[in-house]
Amino acid sequence: MTAEPPVEWDSVLAFARALDEAGEPGHAAAALADPLRTLDPATAGPDGDVIAAAMLYATLAKPALDRVPDAIAWARYARTAAERLHGGDDPATVTATEVLALVLARRGRFQEADELRRLLIRRHRDRGDIDAQHLAQMDLAVQWHMAGRCGEAVREATVVWQQWTTRHDPAEEASVPMVWQLATLLHACGRVGEAQAVVAAADPEHPGGSEPRAETYLELMASIATAVLRHQRVCVHHLDHDFDRADPSVAGWRPR
Ligand SMILES: [Zn+2]
Fold this sequence. Notes:
By secondary structure, the protein is mainly alpha-helical. Helices cover about 65% and strands about 0% of the residues.
């Protein structure tokens, strides 16, 4: 058997990103899977290109189809390798930690995912980066919501939004992700009036306004629509209905 040629990660990454941007996430994951199979996430050395490939693969791989290569193992590799290369507080390590939390949460491993989010919140707080701390707290609330902990999630997200608005104008650009996440949680739980009130308070311009704002608004609406469909399977307001509560494709939620 001849040795395989070294992987040209630059072109693999460019190809996968192009496929993802073209709306082909499954093909993008497949393009990354082959070269990742030539490595072992437990022993691969820290390398910026492999970290980028591992994070993109872990984000794109469908929970049901990712046993080989293992998305969680590769997301763990990315986090450990980024920390070794850059240290725990570096933005690259923070991003890799967020990816690992997302990948774990999507597969229903909420306890581990919550621990990672709490670690990020502590690190931001210890550094005195209050904005990053609030954004990370909102991410934790979103994760609880994925797990069907609707009431706690909305309460926490509302508190975080109130804290955020003591430091920021609700209508400023930096507030958009916060408005987006809180409105999506409320909307997905069927609390439409409250969601509209949050969006109205932030006063984003409607389509027809300046181009970036219109795009933001349309993206917000699309994300809310998707979130509503996904969340119905776990939402406490819908659990009396006949939804398939054990469907592993929906954030891996299982009845205990
Ligand atoms: Zn809900």
